[in-house]
Specification:
7-stranded mixed β-sheet, alpha+beta, SH3 type barrels, 31% strand
Length: 248
């Protein structure tokens, strides 16, 4: 089932009317493609682009995301929140929590801000870019990768975890419908995502090492998430961006 081909007719028939899903077989990056479409006013809120293969997939902090054709669920989507931009840092966290909810049967957790872990190994990553009046969010989920195909030893896939009951069409449908509920509830002013995210978090309550983009690092205990989506340490530091290492 994991190798089932993507079928946008199946997906569009089962997602909420808010979403419009399109597919390409091969592209450099669904994220770059959708950003260009938004900037040229050819994409609107609710547009989703998925691909069977990306030659130059993009991850957080300018990293690449590579996966053999058909082994990952790769997609980007555009939303236009009405909530204050000061709170937009929460949107990628909501996306991460939504992936974890879809993979809850595997006890998936979220490593701040939005890496999805199963048994302490990464199965999904997320990138978010503010564009025009909204945000383009890109997600990659390792679905059918064998161990020899993993990009790094600290990664995993649904195949490796023995979770072969869901294929990519179903996962995308469940994610879009779950994210829609979480996002629209948050966008109307509710903060109930705080409790949901905390319940899924592998980071809050743990000692962590933060390596910042400038090369500096800090060690502390993660205690909360701020209104802007920052990770709050016990010393009062608000972390906006950086590599997180969970310490024992």
């Amino acid at each position: 089932m994991l190798s089932e081909p993507l079928d946008i007719s199946i997906i569009n028939a089962k997602v909420r009317e808010y979403w419009r899903v399109n597919m390409v077989e091969v592209t450099t990056s669904t994220q770059s493609d959708l950003v260009k479409l938004v900037r040229s006013a050819k994409a609107h809120a609710g547009d989703v682009l998925t691909a069977d293969y990306q030659s130059s997939g993009r991850g957080r902090l300018s990293r690449s995301f590579d996966a053999p054709a058909g082994t990952a669920l790769l997609f980007s989507f555009y939303i236009t929140p009405v909530r204050s931009r000061q709170d937009w840092g929460w949107i990628s966290l909501i996306a991460g929590a939504s992936v974890a909810q879809v993979l809850s049967h595997l006890n998936a957790e979220v490593k701040w801000p939005n890496d999805i872990l199963i048994k302490n190994k990464k199965i999904s990553g997320i990138i978010a870019e503010a564009i025009e009046e909204g945000i383009v969010i890109g997600i990659g989920i390792n679905v059918g990768m064998k161990e020899s195909e993993l990009p790094v030893p600290s990664a995993t896939s649904l195949l490796i975890q023995g979770a072969i009951e869901k294929e990519r069409n179903q996962i995308l449908i469940e994610f879009l419908n779950t994210f829609y509920i979480n996002f629209t509830t948050w966008d109307r002013g509710s903060d109930e995502m705080r409790a949901i995210y905390r319940g899924l978090s592998a980071t809050i309550g743990r000692p962590v090492r933060i390596e910042y983009p400038n090369g500096h690092f800090e060690v502390g205990t993660a205690v909360a998430i701020s209104n802007a989506g920052e990770l709050v340490l016990d010393a009062g530091t608000h972390v906006q961006a950086g590599d997180i290492t969970h310490l024992r």
